């Protein structure tokens, strides 16, 4: 078998193939895919991460790549990969034997070489780095933060100055819900380390935006969101599509549950009871899940910052509405925001391919599991630039104001190699959520009663 060429391997900054390491066959690497024994591969080097999950800043998401090649996902999720490699160095146990990394088929237990699509994707990423598309515009993010504060101030002073009549009250709800939705997109930027060059500055800003401005846990968000990014729409690895007791997604999982007579819901009606999901997600489930996670994992610093959010809210609105009035005002704001958040975050994934882990390469997985929504000034602002979902998933640390620039080259790349990449209108994307739920419901009904 041929030896891997330099073009077939993604070189990380300051890193080359080590010498004198044990040569490990790919088939042997694949065996170590459990929590009891976890190996993963980055740049053809094999790391034993069995006990690293407890110390990994991103949490146990690292185990999603046990027994697999994590080169491209590692590069995507770590802006300073050279620094991170220093922490991984003690875990290095060998390297993939050259022959087993370039086989044309995995039938014999070997691993295929990167496809032309993957190789060109890696080159495109390098070009984006050279063009400065991973450099953030401080004026953009300052503007995002400033307009959030202005919306919050407008909500408060509309009631303080104009009274608590229903028209003014509803105006304040809309203004504060808008501020909260936009803060949700901004905390997302901080969580992906795409605002500042230094990770610790992003971490501190994340505390301020998600904990103090939004009243949610930073650690909880990291746990859910990085698992989603590592394996989007992969059953049992992406928590965002794992609601089998309520909804079934993906033909494979749906048929499996139906034939096993699992679940308690009438899944053929899931497109109808879906409408109860958007108003309940943030006000009910996310509150419960946040509190449970913070106390279970003892994230007391998160709890302190969250407490400052509620102290601010009741200090401002308590004198204007009374304690219970401020509480119900807050819950109504969360309900409005929940509709906004749910439809925007689910439009890119629920209608897309859902399956077990097939160990697809990074750019192919993103094209199957995510879709884009057409860009415009309104769509970009309304969705926090998550209408460019494929670009976001390919390059999670890229500042969102550069997605539109990256989009043209990404579209050309996918088209050239015949890899699916969908772009929809905003309303069409919303409608496809319900249509896909109805489709999976019919699949369930056919398998359950067939």
Element layout with pairings:
Layout: E1 23-24, H1 26-31, E2 33-34, E3 37-42, E4 45-48, E5 68-69, H2 71-77, H3 81-88, E6 92-96, H4 116-130, H5 138-162, H6 166-191, H7 199-213, H8 218-230, H9 251-259, H10 270-273, H11 277-296, H12 300-321, H13 323-346, H14 362-369, E7 372-373, H15 377-383, H16 389-394, H17 403-417, E8 423-424, H18 426-449
Parallel strand pairs: 1-6, 3-5, 7-8
Antiparallel strand pairs: 2-3, 3-4, 4-6
Membrane topology: Multi-pass membrane protein
Keywords: Lipid metabolism, Membrane, Oxidoreductase, Transmembrane, Transmembrane helix
Organism: Acanthamoeba castellanii (strain ATCC 30010 / Neff)
Brief rundown of the structure:
This protein is mainly α and 450 residues long. Helices cover 56% and strands 6% of the residues. It folds into 2 domains: 23-101 and 109-113, Flavocytochrome B2, Chain A, domain 1; 115-120 and 127-449, no CATH class.
């Amino acid at each position: 078998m041929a030896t891997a060429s330099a073009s077939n391997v993604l070189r990380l900054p300051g890193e080359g193939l080590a010498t004198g390491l044990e040569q490990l066959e790919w088939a042997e690497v694949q065996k170590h895919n459990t929590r009891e024994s976890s190996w993963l591969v980055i740049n053809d080097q094999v790391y034993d991460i069995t006990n690293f999950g407890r110390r990994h800043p991103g949490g146990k998401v690292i185990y999603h790549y046990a027994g697999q090649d994590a080169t491209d996902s590692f590069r995507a999720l770590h802006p300073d990969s050279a620094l991170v490699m220093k922490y991984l160095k003690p875990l290095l146990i060998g390297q993939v034997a050259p022959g087993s990394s370039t086989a044309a088929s995995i039938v014999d237990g070997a691993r295929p070489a990167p496809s032309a699509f993957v190789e060109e994707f890696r080159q495109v990423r390098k070009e984006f780095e050279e063009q400065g598309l991973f450099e953030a515009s401080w004026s953009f993010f300052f503007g995002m933060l400033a307009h959030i504060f202005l919306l919050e101030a407008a909500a408060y002073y509309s009631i303080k100055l104009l009274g608590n009549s229903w028209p003014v009250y509803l105006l304040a709800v809309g203004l504060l819900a808008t501020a909260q939705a936009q803060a949700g997109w901004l905390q997302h930027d901080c969580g992906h380390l795409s605002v500042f060059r230094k990770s610790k500055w992003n971490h501190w800003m994340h505390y301020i935006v998600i904990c103090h401005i939004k009243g949610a846990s930073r650690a909880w968000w990291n746990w859910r969101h990085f698992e989603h990014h590592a394996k989007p729409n992969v059953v049992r690895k992406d928590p965002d599509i794992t609601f089998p007791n309520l909804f079934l997604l993906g033909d494979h999982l749906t048929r499996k549950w139906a034939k096993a007579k699992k679940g308690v819901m009438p899944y053929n009606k899931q497109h109808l009871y879906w409408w109860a999901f958007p108003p309940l997600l943030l006000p009910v489930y996310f509150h419960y899940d946040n509190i449970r996670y913070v106390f279970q994992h003892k994230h007391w610093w998160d709890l302190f910052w969250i407490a400052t959010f509620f102290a601010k809210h009741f200090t401002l609105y308590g004198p204007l509405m009374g304690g219970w009035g401020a509480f119900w005002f807050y819950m109504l704001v969360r309900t409005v925001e929940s509709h906004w958040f749910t439809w925007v975050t689910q439009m890119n994934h629920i209608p897309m391919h859902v399956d077990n882990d097939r160990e697809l390469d990074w750019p192919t997985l993103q094209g199957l599991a995510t879709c884009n929504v057409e860009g415009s000034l309104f769509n970009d602002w309304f969705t926090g630039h998550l209408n460019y979902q494929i670009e976001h998933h390919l390059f999670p640390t890229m500042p969102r104001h550069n997605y539109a620039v990256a989009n043209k080259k990404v579209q050309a790349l996918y088209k050239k190699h015949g890899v699916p990449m969908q772009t929809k209108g905003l309303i069409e994307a919303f409608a496809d959520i319900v249509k896909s739920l109805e489709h999976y419901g019919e699949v369930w009904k056919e398998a359950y009663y067939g």
